Amino acid sequence: MLIAIDGPAGAGKSTVARAVAGALGFTYLDTGAMYRCIALAQLRGAGDPLASRIELGPPVLLDGDDVSAEIRTPEVTARASEVAARPEVRAALVTLQRELIAAGDYVAEGRDIGTVVAPDAELKVFLTASAQERARRRAAETGADVAQVLAEQIQRDERDTTREHSPLQAAGDAVQVDTTGLQIDAVVARIVDLARADLDSRV
Ligand code: DC
User: What's the 80 CA to ligand 1 centre distance in angstroms?
Assistant: First the structure.
């Protein structure tokens, strides 16, 4: 079974996806980490960033080097949003992602899982939260200034939603959940219930 969790940065996707995977015994796939690795490879001057070897671990390894912390820096975050707009990068990573999720039960998190990577996913969830709330959460995680996080987030949201290739959008059949003001536990429980209902309906 595949559960696709898409949505903008700071909507709570990683926390929710990881917890849902843990509750159901599924494997968690952080597709954003793959785009971040390509961005870091490019920043490090790799001739062909797409030829880099990515292992999602944890820890995340780029050509064997533990980059778990480095892929979360603001510089890599900004570059990741740029490389994610490139069709050849998307094509290569989507192929890898499809290979991975074919191998078992996954909770895959990203921007285009329910729309492009796996339109047949048994359960699709689109998580959102207000821009203010998303910036507040990111700032609390990184210790950065909320106003600055918000300004950068607006730019990335704009790029992620208006890019020509696989722009961020909810699949028509996705369950939309606005996590503003919601406890993460409640969101996780709701998705786990939906997944169990789907599994039960197929036995
Ligand atoms: O989820 P994240 O912040 O780690 O994602 C990093 C960047 O990669 C972000 O700009 C969105 C992009 N991305 C994407 O375009 N498609 C995905 N499936 C996952 C991430």
Answer: 7
Structural domains in the chain (count):
1
Instruction: Give the predicted TM-score (pTM) of the model.
Output: 0.91
- Is any atom of ligand 1 closer than 6 Å to the C-beta of 81? yes
Q: What is the pLDDT of residues 99-128, one digit of tens each?
A: 999 989 999 999 999 999 999 999 999 999
Contact 68, 60 (CB under 8 A): yes
Domain containing residue 92: 2-190
Does residue 197 fall inside a structural domain?
Answer: no
CA dist 195 and 190 (Å) reads 9
Nearest CA to ligand 1 atom 18: 110
CB 138 within 8 A of CB 153: yes
Is position 177 within any domain?
yes
Query: What is the separation of C-alpha 71 from the centre of its chain, rounded to a whole number of angstroms?
Result: 13
| CATH code: domain of residue 146 | 3.40.50.300
